[in-house]
Amino acid sequence: MIIIMTPKATDEQINAVTDKLKQFGLDNHVSRGVERTVIGAPGDENKVDKEALQAIAGVERVIRVTQPYKIVARTYHDSDTVIDINGVKLGGNQIQVIAGPCSVETLPQMEASAAAVAAAGCRMLRGGAFKPRTSPYSFQGVGVEGLEMMKQVAKPHNMPIVTELMDVRQLDAFMENKVDVIQIGTRNMQNFDLLKEVGRTHIPVILKRGMSATIKEWLMSAEYIAAGGNHNIIFCERGVRTFETYYRNVLDVTAIPVLKRETHLPVIVDPSHAGGKAWMVPALSRAAVAAGADGLLVEMHPTPCEAWCDADQAISPEELNKLMGELKITAEAIGRTI
Ligand SMILES: [Mn+2]
Fold it and tell me: What is the CATH number assigned to the segment(s) 2-63?
């Protein structure tokens, strides 16, 4: 940690800083320059309350040298982490496309979805049984029954299932139904109690980016899960809120290489919620793969216009099929497979 004093800082103020650093268990090296004094403080920065130092009179700025996240950081684990999801490997050279409807509706709808997803060459099925909706009067999801339905329809195709967990009280049902991947949605990215609970399991977690979250906040949320012992974390960029109103969110493609640099964990992209329109999905998907995403989370419905939720952003089985063909070319161009 580096503490920069104001030009007029007194010896007492400098001593107050070094005393505080000792309390936190850090060393201190005081360098008195012509203009101002700088204090270098080697040691474990995680033990330091930055604000407590900042509050001391005469302190201009406190700078951290290391990142506040540890387990999820690239410095913790040099090579890419590959997560094995019941035989499907995410984070390696092969790109994984997870597809399925926004919400689980009926058994025939889920059977048709699973068949279409498998036929297109995707290896994982998504679907929401519990839905976070902006309005309390909108369809809220079919609940636990939806988890059973997903497992049932995915089994013949040998596909792991991905579904969103909204509340700690639903976790037992997720465990009982052997949900393969838990999704934490954008609205829950900083629901720290929920993150701690999934951190106690070993079920892989897709952590979506909060719609207004910075990369640092997102990494810290992942650290909550990792700190509990669950290192099977997948980051999912799903678009952020900006001034633009033409599309639902702005897909932050820049976040992909940044995260790949900052963390060893897999990074995937949700092009459906980013654009909010089915016609944008192919272009955003290609951009994500080209930028280095390890996978995609795509909304597909057997009959999009009849979908109970997010109907205008779901692609059809035919469109998914075509998209997989296009992505194969994109993946090959950068030396990856799909
Ligand atoms: Mn949706």
Answer: 3.30.70.1140
